[in-house]
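Marked as duplicate of an earlier ticket. Keeping the data here for the record.
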Amino acid sequence: MSHRRIPKRKAILAGAGAVGIAAAAILLPQANASQDGAGKQAGSPKQMSAASAAGLLQRLGEQLGDSYGGAYYDADKQQLVVNVVGDDDKADADVEKAGAVARSVQNSLSELASAMNSLRGKASVPGTAWAVDPRTNQILVTADRTVTGQRWDTVENAVRSLGDGVARIQKSKGEFKPFIEGGDAIFGGGSRCSLGFNVTTQDGRPGFLTAGHCGVAVEQWSEQQNGQPIATVQEAVFPGEGDFALVTYDDPNVQAPSAVDIGDGETVEIRQAADAAVGLQVFRMGSTTGLRDGQVTGLNATVNYPEGTVSGLIQTDVCAEPGDSGGALFTRDGNAIGLTSGGSGDCTSGGETFFQPVTTALDAVGAQIGSGGGDDGGTDNGGAGDGGADNGGTGDGGAQDGGVSGGEDDGNGAASGAVEEGDYESGTG
């Protein structure tokens, strides 16, 4: 098993919009509900999907240069809001011409990035995390319930040293930790995790992505507890610049379809990997808690777990619990977004949850989503596009040949339904 340094990706889009509807009720019926702002006058704010907003920022962000202060997706209005530092009429005009909303702020994205580097040197204590919050144009620093006394003072002083209006600190009720135990999707030794997305390796072999802390803990994985191993870890990163592992199936002829089983006989076809955008509505499937939804709340997050610091993560308000580690974070139109890393809280009290970006994991291990050009579609590992792919999520849900499949009850009330391609079982929830 090898470890590799992962490449850096520029975090372009950050922001928020409210969701809060049951995930299973909204995922499949609205698979084609994206809008592109047709009928709007040039220069006026356009309605667009969050995926379209991410694509726009990839083109617009570099154009703004030092005037760029981050951006976020307003889900209620279906508009992209771009932060522009100071009174820059030209930058405002460029933003508005592109169909987004220009908003004047204090801090540039480069200044916030510099402040985050300062936090790494001053406040890297276990139980803390930070990410840029473009809605407030500040860094949001979160300290879990274990950060008390002198450690709290250290973090608070580090935030204060950044100056007024640069960062703020909040307390979390939970405790930041990787979600490695308690699941029933893939088993190795005494650990249980969840399968993320099926991939094809550089040499054409079928495999899958899961959490790095799962890959570091156990080298061989099976589909049943104490069962015969079916897959072996090839590369794993944790802690450090990510939390991901590449695992290849021991049988090179195994069928590994590119779909996520979301329970009740329904699947979502995974067509490509895409970058996250703050405000993007996302869905997480895990073997412990089943299908859950929420939104991306931060990018390029740093989390200080007890086991070590992990950087470059996606921050969300989607709940997760032990056993969900490695599970798929995806969109309704079939974009693979992340792999469950860890967080605080649970699916009763809520909390913050962090995910490894799929795009950086694929770049690091040299793999691609799906079968690499077969009938499953979606073999692109590129950034967020316009989200025009159909969901395709009405499959029969039956267990595919090979891959990870189940069908037994785990004793925790989580039924093991068919673990299709990119995910695990239906779970409860």
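See parent ticket for discussion. The longest helix spans residues 50-64.
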